[in-house]
Amino acid sequence: MAITKTTLVDQITVTENGAVLYREATRIIEDGKELTKTYHRSSLTPGQDLIGQPANVVAIAQATWTPEVVAAYEAAQAEAAAKMNPSQE
Question: Which residues form the domain of 20?
Fold first, then answer.
């Protein structure tokens, strides 16, 4: 009787604003039969540190996050923050 546990990224999505969303599936298998499967979802925003992320997610992020995408994301975040906290003159 052999029990194994595997974790792999089974979904990667890039949103319109450049965010990378991914899902990791963890499977417990006994003698070739899957006993359980659980999921963990994560997201990364353009320009975010990629240290410790799965290699395939890093590859997608690096291909997607051009300097223009990162700049547009940061500008949109700054604009949203300004709308939330308008300066008082």
Answer: 3-84
